[in-house]
Structure formats: C-alpha cells, structure tokens
C-alpha cells in the first residue's frame, strides 16, 4: 500500500468514527436545535468519508484511456462522418407479407413521385422561366 492509500484509509476510519460519535451525541441530546447541530456535523463527516472512499477507489482503479480522442470545434453547423454508415437491412417479401402489406400497398405509400400543381391553390402553380438579362433596369415589363 502506498503512502497516499494508507492516508486515505486512515482518513476514512477517522471520519467514520467521527460520524458514529456525533450521531450518538445527537441521540442523547434533548434540545431540538442541538440535535440538528450534531446530526448536521455527523452527516458532513459521513459525506467526507464517502469522498475519501471514492478517491481511494479511483486511485486503485483508474479510468481506462482508450486511444486518441477526437476534438471537434466549429463556429457554425458541423457534420462529422466517422467511418462508414451501417448498411440498411433489406426487407424480404416474406416480412411484408406476414404483416399484411402487399406490393400494391407499398406502391400507394410511395410519396416520392412528383405531382402536378392542383387547382386548389393556383398561386402554387409552377413558375415559368425568367429572362433576367432583358430586365436589368429593375422595372417589370408591365409597369412604366
């Protein structure tokens, strides 16, 4: 045992003895203010004993350092791609058929196909091309 380990062990024993002594003193006291004072002191001694035990445990079992750590610093949005992405599992026809989903359902659920502008909102219709070089003055063709 090293000198530091021995010091932490003796500190733990001393703090434990202090906790027990102060807690006994609190139990023997009649005045509520004195009970509170002795119990507060005993719990502080117990907390310090726990800290000493944690320090000893950290000293005996240090954290494992795993290689080089990556530090990412950016002032704006940042995307980090560490390695290759995991492959997407391919669903078999048997999986979808067991769930009651057929190929017809899958085709109807596909929302990736482009659609035409509807009549409900004509303002959202497709805009035609604009010839920017003929309109350099900033005036539109309809205004003077």
Provide an overview of this structure.
- This protein is mostly helical.
- Helix content is 47%, strand content 0%.
- The protein has helices at 3-28, 32-60, 93-98, 103-109.
- The longest helix has 29 residues, at 32-60.
Summarize this entry quickly.
This protein is mainly α. The protein contains four helices and no strands.
Q: Number of DSSP helices?
A: 4
Which overall shape is indicated by the principal axes computed on the Cα atoms? elongated
Strand content: under 5%
Number of distinct beta strands: 0
List SSEs in N-to-C order. HHHH
Uncertain parts: none
Q: What proportion of the residues is helical, as a percent range? A: 40-55%
- The oligomeric state of the chains shown is single chain
- Distance between termini? 95 Å
* Mean pLDDT over the full residue set: 76
Structural class: mainly alpha
What is the alpha-carbon Rg in Å?
37 Å
Taking the sheet with the most strands, its summary is: none
Keywords:
144 residues, single chain, elongated, 47% helix, mainly alpha
Topology of this protein?
Blueprint: H1 3-28, H2 32-60, H3 93-98, H4 103-109
Helix pairs in contact: 1-2
């Amino acid at each position: 045992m090293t000198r530091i380990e021995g010091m932490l062990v003796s500190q733990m024993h001393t703090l434990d003895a202090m906790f027990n002594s102060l807690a006994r003193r609190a139990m023997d006291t009649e005045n509520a203010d004195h009970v509170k004072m002795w119990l507060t002191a005993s719990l502080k001694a117990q907390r310090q004993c726990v800290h000493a035990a944690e320090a000893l445990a950290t000293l005996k079992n240090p954290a494992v350092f795993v290689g080089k750590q990556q530090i990412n610093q950016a002032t704006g949005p940042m995307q980090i791609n560490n390695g290759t992405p995991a492959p997407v599992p391919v669903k078999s026809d048997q999986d979808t058929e067991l769930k009651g989903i057929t190929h017809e359902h899958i085709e109807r659920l596909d929302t990736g196909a482009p659609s035409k502008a509807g009549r409900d909102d004509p303002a959202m219709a497709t805009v035609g091309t604009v010839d920017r070089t003929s309109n350099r003055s900033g005036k539109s063709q309809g205004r003077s």
